[in-house]
Fold:
Amino acid sequence: MSLCRAIQQSRGLLSLCRSVSLAAGGPCHGPSHGFASLPDPIGDESPPQNSKDGKVLHPDLLNENMVRAEYAVRGELYHKGEELRKQGREVIFTNVGNPHVLGQKPLTFNRQVLSLLAAPALLEHPKVAEIYPSDAIARAKQVLTYFPGGLGAYSDSRGSAGVRKEIADFISQRDGYPSDPNDIFLTDGASPAVRYILQAIIRNERDGILVPVPQYPLYSASIQLYGGQLVGYNLREENNWSMDIADVKKRVDDARAKGIAVRALVFINPGNPTGQCLSYDNLKDIIKFAHEENIVLMADEVYQTNIFQDERPFVSCKKVMFDMGAPYNQQELVSFHTISKGALGECGIRGGMLEATNIHPETIDQLYKIASINLSPNTFGQAGLALMVNPPKEGDPSYEQHKAESEGIIASMRRRARIMTDGFNACEGVTCNYTEGAMYSFPRLHLPAKAIKAAKDAGKSPDTWYCLKLLNDTGILTVPGSGFGQEEGTFHLRTTILPQEDKIKDVISSFQGFHAKFMDEYR
Ligand SMILES: Cc1ncc(COP(=O)(O)O)c(C=O)c1O
Structure:
């Protein structure tokens, strides 16, 4: 059956069939086959410059939005760190929330199931029951039924229906409100899911997206890539990185006065790089605001199980919205989740998702079309999502071990968050809010004037200059606050809390030693 026909059958949509015909590799019916004739010439204008110094793909002739996009997490510091590592120096990669690279072990049950999915012939092996627990075998067989042709075959472009159903059940249970598998898209990590939505929202340079400052640079880079405008709103560091709706409102008014259509508000809960968790009341304010201002909400909830403070449990934006009732339960919302974070930390397997709530059905069809251009999200990532949302249950042979491993990882992160924060706060001229959630510390560096001058003389922003010195002296690779955005005149760095417990004290005392020496030199 052609992709067109399959989509028509599942959604009954002829119009989508027309527009997707190019991606499906052949026309269905109708005139729109995607090969429109070329536009008429604009006056007698000659074509733009096509090559330089014998190269068509010359750096001066690339898509400008691509060239302008920046992604600090893998920016100057990262490249310098890689250079040092290749020279044989020990580098501690605390620049990115990538737990396994710093020694976190994968969850046993999940990898048992994934290994059986990768090598299904093992399921027929006479000794399989001696090696694998019975629930891992049963779960692998069940997940295999979601992937006709196994994990080596393309799945539906939105992701396997079976996995989406498990995710919808998980969301319904988590929030107490229904979730529709047809509104869930599975992607290769949450990053492409975020990009799908930004790409759909941004039409041109007059479309604005509200993004927290500091923010995770996936947002700034993607908004640049799609040619939109980032409209920053400040998180209040003095108030534990809280959101100030009055400030957001002011940013919206300013942007509108400049002719920008503000179309979406991104918030990250728990926050990256700032580590704060939003309270139920904060979420209500955000939803009310978005409703009043007619703005789509983009809820980045990838750290929803990385919670280190009992008084601030995670509550999803969707739950609060439905608790609030009409008219707020009609608010347009897209929420994101991933297997890269939480106790899984499976960054390399690339499993992520979005759930679209109250989004127009024809927009969902357009998203489906865009997803179908990529054919299929990777199947191991999808299986990883199924394992995340539907772990072993009480009474299952793997339950106790799975629970102990998962809870052990989060409890250890909580201890490490405390060690990091306390360690930073013990330093002269460093202040750091406690990491309530996520995986990062974002201390403020109150740099002396002499240090700021030295940085400027070196042609660097003071935080980048500081982080480069820290890397050179100690091998600790962090990301300067400027990569996330920070209030004018303030300087920060971001580090993960992920070095393992036998290492983290050494990391923080190495930082403290460096900083004390630094202050002696520049105070
Ligand atoms: C706030 C936030 N959103 C989304 C992502 C994307 O993660 P992934 O694409 O690995 O799912 C990250 C990764 O660090 C993140 O910190």
